[in-house]
Each structure stands twice: as C-alpha cells, then as structure tokens.
User: Fold this.
Amino acid sequence: MILRKPAILIRLSLSALILVIACLACAPQQASTIAATASQTASITFSPSSTPAPSKTPTQKPTVGSTSPPPAHFENELLRAGNSPQSYIEDECGYLALRWDPEKALPGSVVAPIMYHSIRPGNEEPGEPSAINADLFYQTIELAQSYGFETITSQELINFLYNNEPIPQLSMILVLDDRRPGTAEEYFLPVNQQNDWTTTLAWPIGDTDSRTGLWEEIESIVASGYFDVQAHGLDHNVYLPGLTREEAQAEISGPIPILSEHFGNEPIIYVWPGGLFSEQGVELAREAGYQAGFTVYSRGPILFNAIPQGAEEAALGDPLMTLPRFWSSAALLNLEQAYLASQNALEFAIENYPAEAAWYAQNCGDELPPLEQILASSLQD
Assistant:
C-alpha cells in the first residue's frame, strides 16, 4: 500500500517564523492568511526532554484579578456533534503561562490515543468490533510514520497533561488492553524496535498468579524497554458502576502494589475495564493516586487543557480521569483527524496570541514571552 504523504506540514520553518513575527501587528484577517501560509513551509524538528514527575494537580499561578472575559479557547471543528473540548485548569492565568512558556510544548501539540485488543493474522476477518487484522495494523503504523507521529509513554502523557511538558507535536499513545503478551511480542515489539516507540499495556491482574510463566513472560517483554504497564483492574470487573464502595476500591486500588512489585513502579493511569466508569470510581481512582484514566469512547484527539468529551464524561467534571481513545478499527481516519486538529490548533494559537497576551498583561500582573521567542525555541533542535 502506497500512502499519500501529507501535503501540509505542521511544524514551522525559519522563513515561516519570520512571516508570523512580521505580521504580529496585522489585522486578524491578514494574520490568518499569514498563519495559513506559514503552516505550509518546511518542517522543524521538535523533540521532548526529560522532565520531573508532575504534581497531582495541574500547575496554576494565582490570578491577579480578571476585569474582562479571557479570549476564546481553540474549538476543534472536527469533533462530532455532542462532543466538546473540556478544560481542567480553572485558573486562566496559570493556563496561559503554561501554554506560552518557551520551555513547554508548542501550541498545537496533540496526542492520538489508540486502543488495541486482539490482532488477527493477515487479512483475516477480526470477528469482533474491538479486534483488527494484521493488515490494518500495519497500515495504521505506516500512516502514522507518514504523518510523522511518534509515541509517548504514560509518564510523558501525564507530564504533558498536567504541566504542558514538551512532547512530539504529533504524538500518539498505543494502549494494548488485557493480558496479551503474545500480541505484544509478535506485533508491537518489532514495530517499537524499528521506530524506537513504546506501547502501554493495560494489564488486569486476574488469575495471573495461577497461570504458570505468565508473570515471567510479561516481565521479559517489559524488560525490553519498549513497554510500560498500567492498571486495568484487579479482576477486570466491567460492572464497576454496580459495585459497592468496598468492592470498587478493591478493584481499583488492588493492582497498585502488585504491579509495583513486578515492574518497580506504581501505575499512574487506570484503564477502565470495559470502559465503564462512575462518579464513585473516579473518586476512588483519585484517592488511590491515579493521575489519569482511559475510557473506550472515541471522542477525538487530546490537547493540553482540552479533552474531548461526551455528555457522560463531562457530567463527572474530571476530564483527566475520563480520557478518550480511538478504536484501532478506525485509526486511519482518526490519525488524519488528529493531524488536522494539530495544524488548526497551531494556526489558531498564532492568530490568537495578541489577544491572549493582552489579556494576560491586563489580568495576571505579568507579560507573556514574545511570540518570536516561543516559536524560536522550537528551532533549537
């Protein structure tokens, strides 16, 4: 299969940067045109740096005193009706400080989370909605390579969500649900080795202890350095909303000491078994120390302080614990949507910078760094 290379690259070149800076004083319509032109120029390399573990809550700076409504946030027009981006940082001054920090992720950085289950050989019919065949798996990998996506680990995702730490501008997190060491080794390990990627394993404890060699098998795979393991329930109980508080607490907290014993670190993400979460479950997950949770809802790509949500997740008021995931069966379309969302978000950020900088100076007792400094920091590598 020959894949069409993207006609428009997201990252800005030096010539594009000059165009943007020259137009900072342009009228909004002119600025929009310049930003669109800039996005079509040669690419910049942008690589993540190692960062300290984030705090339990998003970093915020005190608001000096708002006298006017803050500028509008980016709205992803590609989201389906009924889905909308939900912010999770209440302090607008703190959000803008992180958004425009030259040492943080460039605006428009996006994460495409993809959920995998069974992978059938060749072009064999998957047989169930959550499964795909190997042909589609490799097509997805090829498309991701074509666009320039790179994987991030669970820790890198948390650092980005909470503190806007740098990640590749086109990022994805591959999550393989359930205990599938064979699938991990046969399909994901060679791809990870070839691309220096990682895959997150959502590992339910279940009867692992009673299955001879299963712990050793998964520990060996993780020791390769291309996988990280996160919690997927103690017994993979998909009836979480119907459990008592004690039962739900055991299901959610139970994996922590076990996974820590086998892999040397506590899980920081809870992948809801069956995708079923509840208000009580989210509360218990927070109490247990989890910093994010994945559902099975395919709402859209993730941006900093903008989590696409449906009514079910939005009602709980904790977007970080109800993150969406793309289904592997639709990943080709979803990767394209994530790419376009990143492009549109970057163009919006450049065009909206004057309004955000003016509001910040008026309401936050400080000034944002100059746009040229922010964009130039992405040229250093």
Observations:
- The two ends are 32 Å apart (CA to CA).
- Residues 1-53, 59-64 have pLDDT under 50 and may be disordered.
- Residues 331-363 form the longest helix (33 residues).
